[in-house]
Amino acid sequence: MDLRKDMENIKDDMGKGINKVEDSVKKATSGLGHTAGKITNVVKHTAKEIKNEAKGLAMEVGELKEDLKERVEGSKVAKEIKHQMKHDKK
Questions:
Q1: CA neighbor of 53 nearest in space, from 42, 65, 45, 41
Q2: Mean per-residue pLDDT over the chain, rounded
Q3: 30-52 tens-digit pLDDT
Q4: Predicted TM-score of the model (pTM)
Q5: Distances 89 to 8, 11, 64, 75 between C-alpha atoms, Å
Q6: 56 Cβ partners below 8 Å, 6+ apart?
């Protein structure tokens, strides 16, 4: 009879151990899911910030391009005026 009780106790202990392992696994996966959600959120916001920075840089490049274009056209006009003035003097 002691063997039967021992077997039942072992069975109960095994069941309790399995339940503890299941609870631990649930907690661990829940924590991982929460952490993954946080990481995803950080990546999402970082990507938005990078996108906004890129847009700002593109606008700056566009402005610099226009400024450079105006300078080049201004220097061409200045050269043409000098050239014209030389021809007018002759």
A1: 45
A2: 85
A3: 777 788 888 888 999 999 999 99
A4: 0.47
A5: 120, 115, 37, 21
A6: none
Rounded distance between C-alpha atoms, residue 14 and residue 11, angstroms: 5
Residue 3 identity = L
> Number of C-alpha atoms within 13 angstroms, CB side, residue 22?
6
Residue of higher predicted confidence among 34 and 57:
57
Which residue type, as a one-letter code, is found at position 6?
A: D
DSSP assignment of the chain, as one string?
A: -HHHHHHHHHHHHHHHHHHHHHHHHHHHHHHHHHHHHHHHHHHHHHHHHHHHHHHHHHHHHHHHHHHHHHHHHHHHHHHHHHHHHHHHH-
